[in-house]
Amino acid sequence: MNRIPSTVSAENLTQFETLALNSSMNLADGHARQQLTPAQAKVIAELPELWAEAVLRPVAEIEQETADSFFGMLGQHSHPFAAGRTLPCYSSSLAMEILARSLVTTSDAVALLHPTFDNIPDILRGVGLRLIPVEEEQAHDDDLPAELLQQVGCVFITTPNNPTGRVMTAERLTRLAEQCAEHNVVLALDTSFRGFDPAAQFDHYAILDASGCRWVVIEDTGKLWPTLELKIGWLVRSENVDLPIEKIHSDILLGTSPLIMLMVKRFADDGADGGLADLQRTIAENRALVRAELADVPDISFIDEDARTSVERVHVGSRLALDVWSAVSSQNLYVLPCQKFHWARPEEGDRMLRIALSRNPSTLLAGARVLRAALLDTPGLQG
Q1: What is the CA radius of gyration of the chain?
Q2: pLDDT tens for each residue of 341-361
Q3: Using CA atoms in the order 4, 10, 14, 18, what is the torsion angle rounded to 10 degrees?
Q4: How many CB atoms lie within 10 A of CB 75?
Q5: Distance of alpha carbon 330 from the chain centroid
Q6: Strands 301-302, 109-114: parallel, antiparallel or unpaired by DSSP?
Q7: 151 class by beta-carbon count within 10 Å (0-12 exposed, 13-18 middle, 19+ buried)
Q8: Which CATH architecture has domain 39-269?
Q9: What's phi and psi for 182, nearest 5 deg?
Q10: Which 8-state DSSP code applies to residue 199?
Q11: Would you say 293 and 369 are in contact if contact means Cβ atoms under 8 Å apart?
């Protein structure tokens, strides 16, 4: 397998994640790779029956039922699928691409949360948009400056954020939406990690509609369930968004698979029946496992103490994250160095690693032990 020397950085986080795909200790990407629960395994066993159902039923009917189940599981009861404002996509990244291509028709700049996963700034920059960082503390604690809102056509927030896990409260979302309405700025939300944190499951759509602002929300199933990349992303918009989203969506795809829709519906029904709470407990137990294994390592810290999403950041102290990455990857363990999350100032992530928690406990324990040994080998890892 190809290696990246400690002195060399991949061009984006996904390239780091790609290196890990064939490893038995892949703790890099945030996709769900844990074992299926018995209820989920039953859904997979019934895929032939779901196939037959998908052949016979109208696609629109399947999509409506799936949206009701998925959005309902997450508390998003005001979602506007029935109004024709919810477009299915193969993935949240494709939804992001459609949004970016829509935004650039009316604006040249976006205010983007910092830090966040780097494919968001990469996609936005890729269509020619200029990015202005909005620090996470400012986004959550203060009104955005009027002079900032006058420069941009969109404010883009990830909630819960990846990698920090921070959730925008209902009160803060209400005020931000009001500000965006006042300045006629689109408010875009990526909520792909919503399912892990009950604090993120208040009805965002009710707040957004009440604000009168122009808004877009990206939803995703791919982080929740280990479905081998069979997933659905949704691109949801306000009635007044005034962007060519439907046209650009139709430029790129006709629709998504009704078979995958039915599978997602069944997983969401199980989630609403206790499966989502079970997943949240599993992630909490996995986080505790990693923290316990690394607890006696000097000069490290767990940055996001209250995070509930399926990733965990570790500050590696005086070490450089790329040096640690190089040491553990030589032993077939893959984690994610955090420079690229800090898309405006990569050096801020120089001493942080992100560990994916949606894994079997045995995989996490094996990986944590390899990481612990590498971190304790401090003479070779000093920055």
Answers
A1: 21
A2: 999 999 999 999 999 999 999
A3: -20
A4: 16
A5: 28
A6: unpaired
A7: middle
A8: 3-Layer(aba) Sandwich (3.40)
A9: -60, -35
A10: G
A11: yes
Looking at the domain 13-36+274-377, which fold is it? Aspartate Aminotransferase, domain 1 (3.90.1150)
Rounded distance between C-alpha atoms, residue 225 and residue 283, angstroms = 12
Model confidence at 2, in pLDDT bands (50, 70, 90)?
A: very low
pLDDT in tens, 280-329: 999 999 999 999 999 999 999 999 999 999 999 999 999 999 999 999 99
SS3 for 79? coil
Tally of CB atoms within 10 A around 337: 28
Copy the structure tokens of residue 84. Answer: 């024709």
**Beta strand residue intervals within 44-181, DSSP E:** 86-89, 109-114, 130-135, 154-158
Query: Residues of the chain with pLDDT > 70: what percent?
Result: 96
What 245-250 contacts at long range (C-beta under 8 Å, 24+ apart), as own/partner pairs, is 245/87, 245/98, 245/99, 245/102, 245/216, 246/87, 248/98, 248/101, 248/102, 249/87, 249/89, 249/98
pLDDT higher than threshold 60 for residue 62: yes
Average pLDDT score over residue span 55-73? 98
Take residue 130 and report the two structure tokens written for it.
């200029």
pLDDT at 380 > cutoff 70: no
- Please identify which residue in the block is written with the tokens 């966040």: 116
Mean pLDDT of 210-214: 98
In the chain, where are the structural domains located? 13-36+274-377, 39-269
